[in-house]
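From the shared-data thread, chain only:
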Amino acid sequence: MKAALLFVLVARAAAQYYPPPDAEGGWRSRAPKTDQLRKLDEAFEYARQTTKHGGLLVVHRGWLVYEKYFGRGHREATPNLASCGKAFTSIAAGILIHERPDLFPDGLDQKVFTPVYLPAEAFPLTESAKAEIRLGQLLAMSAGLAGNTPGYVDGMPVKLEKPGPDGYTAMIDEVARTTPLWTKPGGGYCYATVSPHIVSMMVRHVARMELQQYLGERVAKPLGWGRWGFGYVRPEIAHTPGGGGIAIRPSDALRFAYLLLREGRWRDRQIIPREYVRHCGRRSPYNPHFPYSLQFDVNSGGQAPGAPRAAYWKGGSGGHAIYIVPSMDLVVFKLGGLDEQYDLSKTNVPPPASTPAYDGSRESWKPGPGTDAGLARTLELVVAAIR
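Structure, as tokens:
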């Protein structure tokens, strides 16, 4: 009885804890047990094999229990996190739906390819079927817009006859407007960066501010982020790139993950609707084709067999990943990155004067086995350590 009561009290204390900004002390920390440390070091070494630069940070029950970096990675690093930025676009959409119920009476079922939701740059529609695309389909990558091949229909891979744009080109408004459909809306899953970028166009139009400003006011400020911004600063990209490119400090990426772990609540504020966060972590009715929900990979089918089925994450090219494991009260940030992702021209976030100099120790690095599967395996190793 006493043990059960103690467990409840510890769990309640963890749920009530929120870290102050790093300028005010930051995350509380404690050392892991000896056996946990050994296994976390194994996870870190695996991350070193699969990523040229980076680090590994682990928060368990509100305690920072592991933080270690390599190469160009360090606590103040703000590399371009590539597609991890898609998750932030999704959360902005979830907040916007809650703020403007008058405009979203159908919630994620809302058809958004009209001038009410999208700016003039999104019109005219290049295909009439686009008018049937629902917001939930854009967020679950099942809108039918062409992206990477293969696509998936009912779990089976389907090669696209003509893949759609990817990378920074997919975050140009005109490119997003003219991207063709490869299937009818809802007819299949395809990882199409234009989909979340169109969502960011919607946020910009409805909120009357750029996505970066919207996230700054609704998320960054209440969570106490330090330096951050968006990369992909190019003449062709006139607005915040909603398909990726956020540049954020590792400890603040943890804050974002912790916000999701706490189902959108931060101290006394419900920043993100609770049900929206829950939707992010489970198989979406808008995507029956593939385990990808509202811009997050979900583990419902055991894609990471060594992790709980309720775990979910968002990765980005270069080996970055944000993980949330609700059943273990656990969040993880895997900092990754290629050389160019740390370049100021790719992040637009000036480093502090105290930035440690890179020692060149990773110049001979070559990816180890399983690089493509590194994100899921890293999570499995951390889970095994914490368990």
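Residues 34-50 form the longest helix (17 residues).
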